[in-house]
């Protein structure tokens, strides 16, 4: 009897395999269960499923599923929330273009919403977090500067303005560092005019960055190498006025006194105009 019982059970299993009922039978026991097609789920169900994916450590899939809420329920309140969450999740997954696209859509649909500053901040971060070392292309730094500026100007009272200001200054310093790297390269190879042009960019366009003291010192070096003593004196005078306590000024002072001259606003060059503006406060 036992043997015949097992044989009958085996026949039932084979029969189930033939008509497809075994899968449903095992499914009822908890094996091989699958979620229903996403199109059959409510906006809330899709949204909560995306949150679960994020919590489980898969921000990219979470971003994709948040986007499904927007696709399937474009005018719902869940879609509004999901749009911003997809931008956030994609950013966490380093999918910066996708993050930026979602945040831009949010601003297009809800420009005056309370979360608009955050959407703008995510756009800025999508560029800022791609800033690489100063030896490579700096287009992301330029884009980050513009987007951070937009946050500072458009949402000055938001909680993101302070962070944007800090990142703006860091991106600016990064760009100045790029100019310094190129300028030092030219200087070390005796291309003094090319080097001066790079250091001038730092002094005129990035004067609030940490690169400015060295730029002024390198100008002293380059101008002395060309025999343009007046220009070197003026660069050192600006350096001494703003950064007298730095090693850069001490080094510049030694270079000049070694030639029998001292820092001062002499001659007639672009540096004299900078001296009048920075030291004398004369803008005309």
TrEMBL record:
UniProt membrane topology term: Lipid-anchor
Q: Where in the cell is it found?
A: Cell outer membrane
Any one GO CC term of the record: cell outer membrane
How does the annotation summarize its subunit structure? Part of the Bam complex.
The record's annotation in InterPro entries points to:
BamD, BamD-like, TPR-like_helical_dom_sf
Annotated keywords? Cell outer membrane, Lipoprotein, Membrane, Palmitate, Signal
Entry keyword Glycoprotein: no
Q: What does this protein do?
A: Part of the outer membrane protein assembly complex, which is involved in assembly and insertion of beta-barrel proteins into the outer membrane.
**Main subcellular localization, coarse class?**
membrane
Domain Outer membrane lipoprotein BamD-like: start-end pairs:
42-236
Give the GO terms filed under biological process for this record.
Gram-negative-bacterium-type cell outer membrane assembly; protein insertion into membrane
Query: So what family is this one in?
Result: Belongs to the BamD family.
Q: Which HAMAP family match?
A: OM_assembly_BamD (MF_00922)
Q: Tell me the PROSITE patterns matching this sequence.
A: PROKAR_LIPOPROTEIN (PS51257)
What is the name of this protein?
Outer membrane protein assembly factor BamD
Q: Which gene encodes it?
A: bamD
Pfam families linked to this entry? YfiO
């Amino acid at each position: 009897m036992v043997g015949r019982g097992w044989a009958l059970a085996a026949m039932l299993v084979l029969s189930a395999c033939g008509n497809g009922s075994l899968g449903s039978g095992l499914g009822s026991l908890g094996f091989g269960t699958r979620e229903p097609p996403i199109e059959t789920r409510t906006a809330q169900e899709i949204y909560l499923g995306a949150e679960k994916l994020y919590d489980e450590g898969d921000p990219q899939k979470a971003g994709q599923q948040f986007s499904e809420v927007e696709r399937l329920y474009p005018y719902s309140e869940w879609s509004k929330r999901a749009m911003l969450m997809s931008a956030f999740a994609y950013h966490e997954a380093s999918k910066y273009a996708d993050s930026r696209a979602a945040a831009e859509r949010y601003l297009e649909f809800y420009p005056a919403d309370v979360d608009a500053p955050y959407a703008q901040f995510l756009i800025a971060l999508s560029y800022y977090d791609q800033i690489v070392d100063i030896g490579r292309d700096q287009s992301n730094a330029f884009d980050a500067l513009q987007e951070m500026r937009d946050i500072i100007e458009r949402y000055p009272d938001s909680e993101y303005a302070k962070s944007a200001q800090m990142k703006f200054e860091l991106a600016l310093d990064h760009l100045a560092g790029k100019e310094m790297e190129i300028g030092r390269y030219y200087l070390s190879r005796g291309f003094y005019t090319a080097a001066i042009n790079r250091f001038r960019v730092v002094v005129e366009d990035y004067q609030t960055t940490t690169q400015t003291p060295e730029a002024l010192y390198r100008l002293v070096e380059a101008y002395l190498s060309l025999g343009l003593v007046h220009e070197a004196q003026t660069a050192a005078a600006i350096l001494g006025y703003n950064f007298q306590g730095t090693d850069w000024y001490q080094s510049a002072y030694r270079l000049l006194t070694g030639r029998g001259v001292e820092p001062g606003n002499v001659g007639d060059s672009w540096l004299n105009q900078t001296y009048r503006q920075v030291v004398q406060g004369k803008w005309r």
